[in-house]
Amino acid sequence: MKILIVEDEEALVELMSAALKKEGFVVETASDYHTAVSKLAVYAYDCVLLDIMLPGGSGLDLLRKLKADGDRTNVIITSAKGSLDDKVTGLGLGADDYLAKPFHMAELVARIRSVVRRSSNAGNLAFVCGNVSLEPDTGAVSVAGVPVQLLKKEFDILKYFMQRPGNIVDKAVLAEAVWGDHVDQADDFQFVYAQVKNLRKKLDAAGSDMEIKSVYGFGYKFVTKN
User: Fold this and answer.
1) Residue pLDDT, tens place only, 15-26
2) 155 closest CA partner among 133, 185, 123
């Protein structure tokens, strides 16, 4: 799961980043309005943690822009401004949740998981494609009801595919989504190929009726086996 923290308070950013990375999230940050706009234009995120008061602009203006552009990224407002008007305005503009500062990191993690689960999986606890089931909260994966043990990156890759069954996924987009935007510093995508190869082997060995199919010149797609 990939998170963008839009916050200018450096100490808080460090605390939030550490807590989220400990939970296995890929975390990126933006300390001002314009950096946030630039990142959201280039990268895809599962959730944006958005402060209202930002250098260069308002978090509420950023939220307005996202919704006007048709962007369906989950947004949780995290602001010290605790007035009812701010909360009502934010939720009215399309924010998925509102968390007033100060907050406990455990609550932040729980709110993120809840928002993402509701939006991407219609409130269900597991993603299901064919006979493959993945539970994002617990990290459990099973094929035909039998547990399958995956490494962290294998799990993240499978979850990304299961959120987009049948869609072509560019290898560069997959790498960026799972490893973060610093992946563009890599010389090649051999690390992606290796992880996908291992994931394929584990799914095949477990009797999956789904497969990660290579699409020449583009990347992959997660489809039912022929």
Assistant:
1) 999 999 988 888
2) 133
Q: What angle do CA 226, 122, 144 make, to 5 degrees?
A: 40
Query: Would the pTM count as exceeding 0.70?
Result: no
Cβ-proximal residues to 76 (8 Å cutoff; 6+ apart), any chain? 47, 48, 49, 50, 95, 96, 97, 98, 99, 111, 112, 115
Please return the burial class of 183, using the count of CB atoms within 10 Å of its CB with bins 0-12, 13-18 and 19+: middle
Digit-coded pLDDT (tens) for 88-140:
888 888 898 998 888 999 999 999 988 887 776 555 567 889 999 998 878 89
Which one is predicted more confidently, 83 or 150? 150
Q: How many residues does the chain have?
A: 226
Residue with tokens 């949780």: 76
- Tell me which residue of 66, 72, 92 sits closest to 6, measured CA to CA: 66
Phi and psi, residue 162, nearest 5°: -70, -20
3-class DSSP state of 65? helix
Residue with tokens 């064919």: 130
114 token code pair? 């809840």
pLDDT band at 171 (very low <50, low <70, confident <90, very high): confident
